[in-house]
Amino acid sequence: MFKDLITPQTANTFIGKLGDILVKAIDQPLGYAINWGRLWSLWPVHIETACCSVEFGAASSPRYDVERFGIIEAFGSLRQCDLVVVQGTITRKMAPRLRLVYDQMPEPKYVIAMGACAITGGLYFDSYNVLPGIDGILPVDVYVPGCPPRPETLIQGCILLQEKIKNMKAR
Amino acid sequence: MTAKLPPGLQLEKEDDKIMTLNVGPQHPGSGHMRLIIKVDGDFIVSCDPDPGYVHRGEEKMAEYRNYITNIPHLERPVIHDSCNILYPYVLGVEELLGLEVPERAKYIRVIAAELNRIVYTLYWLGIYGIFLGHSTMFMWPMGDRELAIDLLEKLTGARVTHSYFVPGGIRNDAPANFEDVCIRQVNYLEKRLRTYGDIFYDNPILIARTENTGILTREDAIRLGTTGTVLRASGVDFDIRTKEPYDVYDELDVHTNVLKNGDSYDRSKTPWLDMLESCNIIRQALEKMPKSGSVRVKLKPNPKGGDDEVYKRVESGRGSLGTYIVSRSKPEPYRLKMSVGSFRNLICLPYLLKGEKLGNMPAVYWSLNYWPVEADR
Amino acid sequence: MSDTDSRKQEETETKLVVEKQDDLPKFEKEQSNKITEKFGSKTEIAFVKPDRVRVNVKKEDILEVASFIRDELHYDHAESVTGIDFPTDKEIEVVYHLGSYTDPKLGRQVLSLATRAPREDVPNPGNDSTRLPSLRDIFYSVEFHERECFEMLGVFFEGHPDNRRLLLPEDWADLPPLRKDFKIKGR
């Protein structure tokens, strides 16, 4: 009977079905494991764009110590990074460089827009050289408001991002 | 020479030994600017700084805002030194409008400015330490810096962007127990700062990396018009706080730290000595400060300056900060120019890096006490 | 009308300081007298305030006056170079703020040396008549300041070796941004 089932005509369908069953059984726990691995080892890329980098530096200081939450200090090559924290104003001169950095990073990658300038242009809404928010050039995951945001706010933004990764479909 | 090199690593011409390197804006050793460096083997042949990645047009924006609404955006170039960057602007507007500042406000201004100098310099020191591979020197200053930030938060209400100085005084009076807390914290900070000498400045590794690299002689420091710690490390005794005292600096005893050699080691040591001097100044100011009194004079709404111009300068953590305001009887300045220390020190970077080893680039670059956001405005 | 007003203000300001310290404006007066003695009608002393002297010169004479200021008055570096646009006068003013490190007497002093270049309604930076002689050979420290002034106001400095773009993006094709006819958005 089994032999009748698997004829050369139906073999492909059968294997496809088997694959579906396997994916259903493994994908969810495996995806959870992958996401779990990702969310506790976020590597921010070392690109400072404006003055919010001061508070980003303070967030890695002993008092706030963002490393407790699995965000590692911004060091290392950008080929190993999976997080861009856009630290403030993006000028017209910096925008192509920021996009270049983002494009060079491996998938998956996440973006945090830190500070009012990165969200809407902030205080510099009418300046001739500042982009009104980075939504136009990067897909933003989490917005952290403030001018500049306090380190606690940045940490909360990072935790929100981890929450988001946890509920994401692992790619 | 048939192999094609990726962009950014081109040789000048074939069979040439000179290679062009782009350092920054994404580079662990550069900050928000780019250096175009040409190297011959390990030695730098020429260096061409390319700033402007944070050029936000502050000077143009200032022409559209009145004298009061200009305050918040003018302090953004150096948010961790926001009292000092605002100081010359506020002094200039006061001269334009003919305001007399109350005595107590002057003292509180000096205390806030000196605390801010400590906050700025500790941040710089942390960055300098980590770029030389000295991780302790990142953690210690960044941790101790929070103490001074706490004091400023108590005084002004904000962590880094204070907007505390306004034309005619300060925004609000110091809280009741500020003096006691301040003197305690400053004494503790000074004790901590002295230990940096043992762990960092007497460290043979730091000395090996920075001594005799990037030497700026006295003549060149004057010719290039450098300012602040760079100038004083080269043996020129020039500090606006003593040469042209503003507010109450003439009533305080300010000692200028001058070092002789002009190498990266001296340039990195001068800010540390300045911080110790700042602790001294804060203690003196707390002692002489009037215990009560008004801190702000009333301003008319939309104040106008006459047909006049004023150039005021103060000494910040990075050097002399000048603000030039041209007024044409309008509530907005006709032209506002910020002459900032970082921009003035930028000119000696190509000069210092020539002939230096590529590995010494971070040691020389960060010893200039350079904050790119300020230089670009 | 406004001139007299500002002069009155200056007088009151100087008086205020005179009460505090008697000998202050004397020194500045000496400085400005030295310049007028040497150059006569070529220069115009715009004001003498405590610690601040401003000298206006024509652009043909600026090199001569600047060398005199460096060699005889011992000012040795430039603190800033400011370009100011005056569309009604059809001129662009460039102000050099000069200071001194070597002469301890000049520690408080800032001398402003101002000159004016013709302004064109349709600017073509580098190729039009908005030109000034560069002071780089006299005060080396103006190098980056003059580059900034060139891109921000379109004043070309003749004799400057490096009139390249500094702060603005590489593809900037608009008017020089600090000219008054360049409007920022929403204003």
Describe the fold and architecture:
- The complex is a heterotrimer of chains A (171), B (377) and C (187).
- Chain A has 171 residues and is mainly alpha-helical.
- Chain A has a single domain (39-166), classed as Rossmann fold.
- Helix content of chain A is 42%, strand content 8%.
- Chain A has 6 helices and 3 strands, in the order H-H-H-E-H-E-H-E-H.
- Chain A has helices at residues 2-5, 11-39, 53-59, 95-104, 116-120, 151-166; strands at residues 83-87, 110-114, 142-144.
- In chain A, strands 1-2-3 form a 3-stranded parallel sheet.
- The longest helix of chain A is centred in the first third of the chain and has 29 residues, at 11-39.
- Chain B is of the alpha+beta class and 377 residues long.
- Chain B has a single domain (58-376), classed as Cytochrome-c3 Hydrogenase, chain B (Orthogonal Bundle).
- Helices cover 45% and strands 13% of the residues of chain B.
- Chain B is built from 15 helices and 8 strands.
- Chain B has helices spanning 58-62, 70-74, 82-97, 103-131, 136-156, 178-201, 204-210, 218-223, 228-233, 240-243, 264-288, 341-345, 348-353, 361-367, 372-376; strands spanning 18-23, 34-40, 43-50, 165-166, 169-170, 307-315, 320-328, 335-339.
- Chain B is globular.
- The two termini of chain C are 30 Å apart.
- Chain C has a single domain, classed as Beta Polymerase, domain 2 (2-Layer Sandwich).
- Chain C contains 4 helices and 7 strands, in the order ααββαββββαβ.
- Chain C is α/β, with parallel strands linked by helices and 187 residues long.
- Chain C has helices at 2-20, 24-39, 62-71, 143-153; strands spanning 43-49, 52-57, 77-86, 91-99, 110-118, 131-133, 156-158.
- In chain C, the strands form 2 sheets. A 5-stranded mixed sheet of chain C has the order 1-2-5-4-3.
- Chains in contact: A-B, A-C, B-C.
- The interface between A and C is small, with 8 and 10 residues.
